[in-house]
Amino acid sequence: MIAAMICYIPVAHLADKYGRRPFVLATFVFFTLFPITLMFAHSFGWLALAFVVRGFKEFGEPARKALIIGEATPELRARTYGAYYLIRDCVVTSGSFLGAWLWHLGPQVNFMGAAICGALGTVVVLVVHLPEAGVSPCPCSAFTKKFVL
């Protein structure tokens, strides 16, 4: 939670300045990394690190929410936002039943399944959503062009 709180405001500012989609991509990368780090956490230190990664899953949350709102027709923004979260929560709830079943096959199967879903989401954002918006997949590209080059 501390990791999420630390990055929320700076990332929201940077996403407004450099574009939201690359920060959403970074969020999907953390969605993929969390179950992998959790799977390999065999001590308290590694478990703490896994939950720092979990906190960074919120890295692009402000950008993702702004993207949802920004893509909606102005008169339908609240409805669009509500529909998005209804659909998402229905999928997540269904996924919890699948996760319960996978747990019977073993925790590693469950964690790998979650990582695969995160990786698929990352690929969709990388291949579909970033190019259609004309955005470089690297969240640092605009920053690098402005301050480093």
Task: Please describe what this structure looks like.
The protein has helices at 2-18, 21-39, 44-56, 61-71, 77-105, 107-132, 141-148. The protein is mostly helical and 149 residues long. It has one domain. Helix content is 83%, strand content 0%.
Main attributes of the structure:
globular; mainly alpha; disordered C terminus; 149 residues
Beta percentage is under 5%
The string of secondary-structure elements, in order, is: HHHHHHH
Average pLDDT rating: 83
Largest sheet: none
* Shape estimate: globular
Taken together, the total number of domains comes to 1
Helix coverage percent: over 70%
Distance between the termini: 35 Å
Uncertain segments of ≥5 residues (pLDDT<50)? 139-149
What's the gyration radius in Å? 17 Å
Secondary structure: number of strands:
0
- Structural class of the secondary structure composition? mainly alpha
Q: Helical stretch count? A: 7
